[in-house]
Amino acid sequence: MISPHDPLVQYVGRIDYQNPNQVSFSHPGISIKLKFEGKICNILLGNEGASKMANYYNIIVD
User: Fold this and answer.
1) Cβ pair 16, 25 in contact under 8 A
2) Which whole-number Å values give the CA distances from 3 to 14, 40, 44, in the listed order?
3) pLDDT tens-digit profile of 3-49?
4) Tell me, what's the pLDDT at 55?
5) Rounded to an integer, what is the distance from CA 49 to the centroid of its chain?
6) Residue 26: its pLDDT value, please?
7) Which residues span the domain enclosing 42?
8) Is pLDDT at 50 greater than 80 in this prediction?
């Protein structure tokens, strides 16, 4: 498993790095870039806040 704080994971936008086990973001326009070689990539994304359906994700695999 790769840590969300691994320097190979690149974030753009307002990212909260205070928790050593996760990164948090809640503003529009956030992007995450990750390059890997393999057949499987699992990413855990979660919703927090008043509405559990308030966040939308676009995932692009190239």
Assistant:
1) yes
2) 18, 16, 12
3) 888 888 899 998 899 988 889 887 778 888 888 888 888 888 887 76
4) 76
5) 16
6) 76
7) 1-62
8) no
**3 state SS of 24:** strand
- What's the angle, vertex CA 20, arms to CA 25 and CA 29, rounded to 5? 15
Which pLDDT value is given to residue 12? 92
Number of domains in the chain: 1
Q: Are 30 and 14 in contact (CB under 8 A)?
A: yes
Tokens of 51: 């509405």
The whole-angstrom separation of Cα 1 and Cα 41 is 10
Distance between alpha carbon 55 and the CA centroid of its chain, in Å? Answer: 12
Q: How many CA atoms lie within 13 A of 58 on its CB side?
A: 6
